[in-house]
Automatic annotation (TrEMBL):
Catalytic activity: Ca(2+)(in) + ATP + H2O = Ca(2+)(out) + ADP + phosphate + H(+)
Family affiliation: Belongs to the cation transport ATPase (P-type) (TC 3.A.3) family. Type IIB subfamily.
Originating species: Salix koriyanagi
E.C. designation(s): 7.2.2.10
Membrane protein topology class: Multi-pass membrane protein
Highest taxon, organism lineage: Eukaryota
PROSITE patterns in the cross-refs: ATPASE_E1_E2
Name this protein carries in UniProt: Calcium-transporting ATPase
GO CC terms in record: plasma membrane
Cellular localization per UniProt: Membrane
Residues in Cation-transporting P-type ATPase N-terminal domain copies: 98-172
Alphabetical keyword list: Acetylation, ATP-binding, Calcium, Calcium transport, Calmodulin-binding, Ion transport, Magnesium, Membrane, Metal-binding, Nucleotide-binding, Translocase, Transmembrane, Transmembrane helix, Transport
Organism placement in taxonomy: Eukaryota, Viridiplantae, Streptophyta, Embryophyta, Tracheophyta
Length: 1025
């Protein structure tokens, strides 16, 4: 195989030797002479530098090659991927210059720095083949076998398997293979069934998290392709793409700086250094994937993607931890541990009692003979009996330990995450699912969350004259030109038009798009012509602190220097000392004139309009030089050019969502950067402020005022505040801290980079999927994909549903635990035997742990959940209502089953084996009927909405079918006897009494104060006395 270096030189030589027939004789001689020189140099360089196969060489960019600009094979690029990767990783400016700078690199990878790549399917495929795709090799996902192994690690499972093996061995030895395998084999089958169901559940949950991970990693990137700005997936990014970056973006690949202003990068994720790096052409043009844009904006040329970047290499070794434990899971693990200890004590007592009764000769076999007769009893019989006793005790532990609780949490979280995705909410951190159900306050943004983010300029004031009805041609051409300059130069948006006949396409933030659309369509602004007529000297990018952006430019025609500012109307107005009227006359702005402008701004704001002002000042070269040193733009003595009012209508349904949250006991606070009049108008429109409530002292406050309060004043007033206007991200953070100190569970929405501290500080951070920056998304717990407040209300509903479903399952499982433990203990102590065999108890364990969890964990949220007050941070997991329900059902089951244990044979006139089957059957059917009771903790009608949960009905049906199989067809496996129709009717009737008992019990009132708090109070008072 020919080395690439040799091949490249031969291709060059071949192209040089191909002399065009159209050349004249003199030109042919010059061509031949040049070819001879070139070939000699090539052969000489090859003879001096041996070919090394291990490391691919780069084709030398010799002067002759550069001058001729020979086009090699059009199917290949002029630079190797390894060279591009090393370029950014080493950040070597000399190396970059050797390639001809960024222009040379762009030429080598076939990119037009103004228009981007072609972007067609063939071009994308060719680039991906040459340079790779923007994806990372991830560690292999855990397979099904991994979860099977994890399930086997449970100590009780090991003990049961040991008992099953011993039982199997002794059974075969005593009764032969045909009959002797039943007891041990049954336990084996039951244990493997429990393991299989557990492994399948965990495997499915892991797959679900993997899917969500892929969705959360799929960022949207703005690129320029075929001279058109468009949004693509980060996975579709290729080498050669021109990427548009703005504040809060994550750099999606390695690349080089093309153009931009005040671009600063936070490289702490890669280097650990907190200082921001300024990106420019001269000293630092290198951009590294995974870093964040801290300030400014710009364009970059992608040079490496995917595994060829440092970020890609790092990410390939990082796997997403899906074993993150939520607070609720931690509380449940403690509960499980406590119940397990009780079960362990009961099992140990049962073990001791059974062993004592056996070795004292107080137990009989099926034929009525005493099982232990001292030395006359065979050793095999003793071991077999002891194994059976140990298996029964261990099985009690298995039933007592509610391992279904963590499974129920996992199932309900996985189910709710999947359904929340359909409801436009992507969960990034599991604890947020359940914490959201306890939220007492939601601090929300206005723009895009409460409003539609579909902005349009509806008002235009020039001087003190509204221009709604006026023709732009009546405005002074000079003033109109200045306004166009202020719009075209001082923007991060863009305008694209494919042809004169096609429509304009506007890109950028909603505010930028609204202003650009107005200037292009109403003022006939030619953005390209404006940009080419001026040279931008300096830019001050918009930030949420100053709420304005500025640009310093020089007109190419007369070299005059101009400052343009754009931003919040009252902020810009404070910087002005004069204004232009429609005729182009500049007028001084005295106090009276300023008051008039302030009134105009207030009137627009009261109509729910966002007010933006434009200001201008021509400066001298000396003033420019003075500001150049400080890197600042002039901020005083400006001339006001005009005011625009931008309408952003409220989202349909937002008022109902706000009302739902307020009825659920959740306070809604709107925190916005808009002025106080706009904020108040929107708050009234959305229902956050009720008519007349805006006049309540302290309901509406400005960020600066809140900031200047003392700590004690803030703590006193924070609950009353409904709207905070003209707020900065630090004001939002301050409010969150105050609310948390007062005991609130706080959810916060945010979309900007500066919102990150508040999103992290809040109990639940909610970032916006459309307008949210990558920094905001990474700091949040849940991403609202449609930026809609109604989706926030949906998340609240799902959060409450998760908590409620867990409580339902706890009530259901503890009922079984209490009943099973008491029945087995009493029977073992009094009769010397347990009524339920190991296989039967494992079957009950399977019903209540796995199928029960699946049935109750998938209940959907109801409107009733939004009519209760939020669950407090310290409220107990098991409420008084739950204790009332579970103790009544457990008492009923204990009474019935112990009655059958001691008097069942005489009452029904049946044999002992049939009686044991009746006990087993009634116990299982009681759990089936009690599953219906568990659906509603307080409501008497447990059947409401049951038709909507087909999974619940399906699981109930499967449980009943399997129970029939166990009793009627798996006699030897389950140690049961077939029952007749009358006996089945008696079992069903007895179990069905759970329903009327549940209905009656729910009529009994319970105190709101938790039961155990009385014990704590009693202990405290005793200590005092």
């Amino acid at each position: 195989m020919m080395h690439p270096l040799v091949h490249a030189n031969l291709v060059c030589i071949e192209s040089l030797l191909d002399v065009p027939a159209t050349l004249g004789k003199p030109n042919k001689r010059w061509h031949l002479a040049f070819t001879t020189i070139y070939c000699s140099r090539t052969i000489y360089s090859l003879s001096r530098k041996p070919v090394v196969r291990k490391k691919p060489s780069k084709i030398s960019s010799s002067p002759s090659y550069t001058t001729l600009n020979i086009n090699l094979d059009t199917d290949h690029f002029k630079i190797h991927q390894s060279s591009l990767s090393e370029l950014v990783k080493k950040k070597d400016l000399d190396h970059l210059e050797n390639f001809g700078g960024i222009v040379g690199i762009a030429h080598a990878i076939g990119t037009d720095m103004d228009g981007g790549i072609n972007g067609g399917p063939e071009d994308i495929a060719r680039r991906q083949q040459a340079f790779g795709s923007n994806t990372y090799k991830k560690p292999p996902t855990k397979g099904f076998f991994h979860f099977v192994v994890e399930a086997f690690k449970d100590l009780t499972i090991f003990i049961l398997l040991g008992c099953a093996a011993l039982s199997l061995g002794f059974g075969i030895k005593e009764h032969g293979l045909k009959e002797g395998w039943y007891d041990g084999g049954s336990i084996f089958v039951a244990v493997f069934l429990v393991i299989a169901v557990s492994a399948i559940s965990n495997y499915r949950q892991n797959r679900q998290f993997d899917k969500l991970s892929k969705i959360s990693d799929n960022m949207k990137i703005d690129v320029v392709r075929s001279r058109r700005r468009q949004t693509v997936s980060i996975f579709e990014l290729v080498v050669g793409d021109v990427v548009c970056l703005k504040i809060g973006d994550q750099v999606p690949a390695d690349g080089l700086f093309i153009d931009g202003h005040s671009l600063q990068i936070d490289e702490s994720s890669m280097t650990g250094e907190s200082d921001h790096v300024e990106i420019n052409h001269t000293k630092h043009p290198f951009l590294v994937s995974g870093t964040k844009v801290a300030d400014g904006y710009g364009q970059m040329l992608v040079t490496s993607v995917g595994m060829c970047t440092t970020w890609g290499e790092m990410m390939s070794h990082i796997s997403r931890d899906t074993n993150e434990q939520t607070p609720l899971q931690a509380r449940l693990n403690k509960l499980t541990s406590s119940i397990g200890k009780v079960g362990l004590v009961v099992a140990f007592l049962v073990l001791v009692v059974l062993l004592v009764r056996y070795f004292t000769g107080n137990t009989q076999d099926d034929s009525g003979k005493t099982e232990f007769n001292g030395s006359k009893t065979k050793a095999d019989d003793i071991v077999n009996a002891v194994v059976g006793i140990v298996a029964a005790a261990v099985t009690i532990i298995v039933v007592a330990i509610p391992e279904g609780l963590p499974l129920a949490v996992t199932l309900t979280l996985a189910y709710s995450m999947k359904r929340m995705m359909k409801d436009q909410a992507m969960v990034r951190k599991l604890p947020a699912c359940e914490t959201m159900g306890s939220a007492t306050t939601i601090c929300t943004d206005k723009t895009g969350t409460l409003t539609m983010n579909l902005m349009k300029v509806t008002k235009f004031w020039l001087g003190q004259e509204s221009m709604e009805q006026s023709d732009p041609s009546s405005v002074s051409p000079y003033v109109l030109e200045l306004i166009k300059q202020g719009v075209a130069l001082n923007t991060t948006g863009s305008v694209y038009r494919e042809s004169p006949e096609s429509r304009f396409e506007f890109a950028g933030s909603p505010t930028e798009k609204a202003i650009l659309s107005w200037a292009v369509l109403e003022l006939n602004m030619d953005m390209e012509q404006m940009k080419q007529s001026c040279q931008i000297l300096q830019v001050e990018a918009f930030n949420s602190q100053k709420k304005r952006s500025g640009v310093l430019s020089m007109k190419k025609i007369d070299h005059t220097i101009h400052v343009h500012w754009k931003g919040a109307a009252e902020m810009i107005l404070a910087m002005c000392s004069s204004y232009y009227d429609a005729s182009g006359l500049m007028k001084e702005m005295d106090d009276r004139e300023r008051s008039t402008f302030e009134q105009i701004i207030q009137d627009m704001a009261a109509s729910s309009l966002r007010c933006i002002a434009f200001a201008h000042q021509q400066i001298s070269e000396d003033q420019y030089e003075d500001g150049k040193e400080d890197k600042t733009l002039r901020e005083d003595c400006l001339t006001l050019l005009g005011l625009v009012g931008i309408k952003d209508p409220c989202r349909p349904g937002v008022k109902k969502a706000v009302d739902d949250c307020q009825r659920a006991g959740v306070n809604i606070k709107m925190i916005t950067g808009d002025n106080v009049f706009t904020a108040r108008a929107i708050a009234i429109e959305c229902g956050i402020l009720k008519p007349g409530a805006e006049n309540i002292i302290g309901a509406v406050v400005e960020g600066e005022k809140f900031r200047n309060y003392s700590h004690e004043q803030r703590m006193e007033k924070v609950d009353k505040i409904c709207v905070m206007a003209r707020s900065s991200p630090l004001d939002k953070l301050l409010m969150v801290k105050c609310l948390k100190q007062k005991g609130h569970v706080v959810a916060v929405t945010g979309d900007g980079t500066n919102d990150a501290p508040a999103l992290k500080e809040a109990d639940i951070g909610l970032s916006m999927g459309i307008q949210g920056t990558e920094v905001a998304k990474e700091s949040s717990d849940i991403v609202i994909l449609d930026d809609n407040f109604a989706s926030v209300a949906t998340v609240l509903r799902w959060g409450r549903c998760v908590y409620n479903n867990i409580q339902k399952f706890i009530q259901f499982q503890l009922t079984v635990n209490v009943a099973a433990l008491v029945i087995n203990f009493v029977a073992a102590v009094s009769a010397g035997e347990v009524p339920l065999t190991a296989v039967q108890l494992l079957w009950v364990n399977l019903i209540m742990d796995t199928l029960g969890a699946l049935a109750l964990a998938t209940e959907q949220p109801t409107q009733e959940l939004m009519e209760k007050s939020p669950v407090g941070r310290t409220e107990p997991l098991i409420t008084n209502i739950m204790w009332r329900n579970l103790l009544s059902q457990a008492l009923y089951q204990i009474t019935i089953l112990l009655t059958l244990q001691f008097k069942g044979e005489s009452i029904f006139g049946v044999t002992k084996t049939v009686n044991d089957t009746l006990i087993f059957n009634i116990f299982v059917l009681c759990q089936v009927f009690n599953e219906f009771n568990a659906r509603k903790l307080e409501e008497k009608n447990v059947f409401r909405g049951i038709h909507k949960n087909r999974l619940f009905l399906g699981i109930i049906g499967i449980t009943i079918l399997l129970q029939v199989l166990m009793v009627e067809f798996l006699k030897k496996f389950a140690d049961t006897e077939r029952l007749n129709w009358g006996q089945w009717g008696g079992c069903v009737g007895t179990a069905a009494l759970s329903w009327p008992i549940g209905w009656v019990v729910k009529c009994i009132p319970v105190p709101e104060k938790p039961i155990f708090s009385y014990l704590a109070w009693r202990k405290y008072t005793v200590k005092d006395t």
